[in-house]
Amino acid sequence: MAEQARLLRASLLGHQNRDAYYEAFKPDGQHGQGASVPPLAALSRKTSWKVQTWLHPDFGMRVRADLEEEFQQASRDRHAIWERSRAYGSAVVKLLSRVS
């Protein structure tokens, strides 16, 4: 059960950090193409792109080019995360059934 809890925690941290993959950009008319908008100095990168896309309706959001491969791997791992959460739940149910 401890191993399943560790894997589930790692999955949760990955889910919480998913916004770090994105950046704000100014589209040039082609799908996903355009110039990156530099992050606002007073804000973190994650908060910056959210504020920029909210304040500037002409700005878009896309996956950062330097994190594209990591983003694709995280997308492929979603099913594994789901399986980890089910395995953790099953381990807890087994543990609780032994206690009762």
Low-confidence stretches: none
Q: What is the helical fraction, as a range of percent?
A: 55-70%
- The percentage of residues in β strands lies in 5-15%
Number of helices: 4
DSSP summary, beta strand count = 3
Distance between the termini: 17 Å
Shape: elongated
Q: What is the arithmetic mean of pLDDT? A: 79
Structural class: alpha+beta
Main sheet attributes: strand count, strand direction, barrel closure: 3 strands, antiparallel
Provide the gyration radius in Å. 19 Å
Order of helices and strands: HEEHEHH
What can you tell me about this protein's structure?
The chain is 57% helix and 13% strand. The chain is of the alpha+beta class and 100 residues long. Strands 2-1-3 form a three-stranded antiparallel β-sheet. Strand 1 and strand 2 form a beta hairpin. Helix 1 runs antiparallel to helix 4. The longest helix has 22 residues. The protein is elongated and about 60 Å long. The chain starts with a helix and ends with a helix. The mean pLDDT is 79.
Question: What's the SSE blueprint?
Answer:
Elements: H1 2-16, E1 22-27, E2 34-36, H2 45-55, E3 60-63, H3 68-76, H4 78-99
Antiparallel strand pairs: 1-2, 1-3
Helix pairs in contact: 1-4
What brief labels describe this structure?
100 residues; single chain; alpha+beta
